[in-house]
Amino acid sequence: MEQARFLGIVALHSGYFVRRQFDAAIGVERGKRTSVFVEKLLARGHARRYTFEHNRQVFQLQYKPFYEAVGDEHSRNRREHQPQTIKARLMGLDFVQANPDSHFLATEQQKVASLERLVPRDVLPAKVYAAHNGGSAIRRYFVDRFPVFVKPSPNRSSPCFGFAYIDSGFDTTSAFVTYLRHYKAFSRQLANSI
């Protein structure tokens, strides 16, 4: 059960994990259970292994039925990514694991459904993608995939929303400034509605 729960969290929040993250999820320190779990995923073709500098291993959950089971069958987490994106995704998973008392809005649909009750959809952070083959342009929300979460607030009637920015160490400060600019209208509107 704890293995399935962990895989669900990985599928929703990062697509990637390292052994220590599974260890933390099951409450062990480097054990045989982790090795058996990882080898089973690899042998069944459910995950792919990447080996980086100093033999650091990262595992990508690639088996589509896992993503279908969590309601995110078209997840971009199954695609291959650049090392800086992988690092940011792993850091995002660390953040999720470090905040078990928070309810995370993992998918674009969850984020939009929760937040458009408080602010108009047109101020949600979005990016418009050009259409291929003469179709209409597509508007996607929260494309940065940074963690968005809700914490119960005992002193307020409305919940407290949180938005995490993940800096993988490859970005410049201009990336953070761009993030703030992208979220500016949304955060102002959200602050006024709560």
Could you characterize the architecture of this molecule?
- With about 190 residues, the chain is of the alpha+beta class.
- It folds into two domains: about 1-90, Winged helix-like DNA-binding domain superfamily/Winged helix DNA-binding domain (Arc Repressor Mutant, subunit A, Orthogonal Bundle), CATH 1.10.10.10; about 105-194, no CATH class.
- It has seven helices and eight strands.
- It has helices spanning about 1-15, 20-25, 30-45, 65-70, 85-100, 110-115, 175-194, and strands spanning about 15, 45-50, 55-60, 105, 125-130, 140, 150, 160-165.
- A three-stranded antiparallel beta sheet has the order 1-3-2, with helices on both faces. The protein has a three-stranded antiparallel beta sheet with strand order 4-7-8, with no helix packed on it.
- The longest helix is centred in the C-terminal third of the chain and has 21 residues, at about 175-194.
- The chain is globular, with a radius of gyration of 18 Å.
- It starts with a helix and ends with a helix.
- The relative contact order is 0.12.
- The model has no long low-confidence stretch (mean pLDDT about 90).
Annotation keywords:
3-stranded antiparallel β-sheet; Arc Repressor Mutant, subunit A; 7 helices; 194 residues; globular; 2 domains; alpha+beta
